[in-house]
């Protein structure tokens, strides 16, 4: 496709293509000629064409680009299971402090402050999860799952347990199945009971001498608390298996219930969800893993330990090795530290209360069926038509839509998690978007969105034939 450079409109006249902001390189107005260069001749190239925008042009360019996008600072972003909460600026300030990013190869003696913070964060997370020890190394939730399962596997091997199966409820996040399979296990998928929770009878039938672990999300992806968790733990432990907690939904439980107290042996924390570090668009996250005492010797190396007031990097006795370079995504972890330290016990407890209240308030304001309840920090509404069309239409009402078509237990699912960060006014705005989209005719839904920077995108084509560079626009 081509653009008319005078007006920046598409030459093919496709009005549904939305707005367009040219690249600075495309906008270059005057030729840059450098008569005299301080560089030696063989290091200069005439072919290098640099843009030369004026300062206001440059400022407007980036402002326009930012306005074509939608982020958590534009409005509500209720992607269920993703916990897209607002990221407070003070955490950025902390991560930007001089010295925050010390070189990871420096000696322990010269980086005591950084090691102390890492040790504090290990301790905070262990306390929040009811775990004995925590590693900060894994760089994402999925990487945390993989690490946790490798730790469980090493534990079983060390104890001579020959177990080759991991049980995963069918409502689990796709990464659970993938992590178990990647660690070399057979994945046994567990059907849900009628009420959307774990079917305890089916679990009893599924566990055996082959069970290495059960991976569980609680509240599950429908937002329902697995209230049989103690019985579930007994069944799995009784068969010699371990209990893995997918901590991505910890926002519902913060300060109230601890996975360790529910009987879980190993868990990951999605700090870029629960503890407000930015995520999305493939940016860095962190997925620390917590374990009970029996599993601590298998954690990745190094762990940070304190001895007589000195912080040291220590290799756990039966460590599975390293799962990431150096200290993991340290600046993300530093923001996590700042967030937890600032909120403290009462702030974290308040967070879960508001997250659950907001989800329940929003649900009460929308005209959609919500088949499973009582839900906590998120709910899954059912659209009585194509959930993707409803989601695209919601964009036209100025909000980000919920997660669509998952979990599959709900027809045309709209999985909605407003988070504690939204005000009542923002929740009302979201509810209006839901309800307008429900009332709109089929044509409006099928052609939506029409008020966004990009019109309706051919998703299949975008996934199969991605254009990864701006030059591809010329094709
Ligand atoms: C987000 C999520 C994960 C995976 O976390 P990533 O950081 O995206 O790898 C796992 N389980 C659940 C329930 C999630 O919502």
TrEMBL record:
Bilayer-crossing regions: none
Catalytic EC class: oxidoreductase
Gene Ontology cellular component terms for the protein in this record: cytosol; glycine cleavage complex
Start and end residues of each Glycine dehydrogenase C-terminal domain: 352-439
Domain of life, source organism: Archaea
One of the protein's GO biological processes: glycine decarboxylation via glycine cleavage system
UniProt-annotated stretches for the region Disordered: 1-54, 438-475
Catalytic activity from the UniProt record: N(6)-[(R)-lipoyl]-L-lysyl-[glycine-cleavage complex H protein] + glycine + H(+) = N(6)-[(R)-S(8)-aminomethyldihydrolipoyl]-L-lysyl-[glycine-cleavage complex H protein] + CO2
Span of the signal peptide: none
Name under which the protein is recorded: glycine dehydrogenase (aminomethyl-transferring)
Record-linked SUPFAM superfamilies: PLP-dependent transferases
Start and end residues of each Aminotransferase class V domain: 150-280
EC number annotated for this UniProt entry: 1.4.4.2
Keywords: Oxidoreductase, Pyridoxal phosphate
Organism field: Halococcus dombrowskii
InterPro entries referenced in this protein's UniProt entry, alphabetically: Aminotrans_V_dom (IPR000192), GDC-P_C (IPR049316), GDC_P (IPR020581), PyrdxlP-dep_Trfase (IPR015424), PyrdxlP-dep_Trfase_major (IPR015421), PyrdxlP-dep_Trfase_small (IPR015422)
GO MF term set: glycine binding; glycine dehydrogenase (decarboxylating) activity; pyridoxal phosphate binding
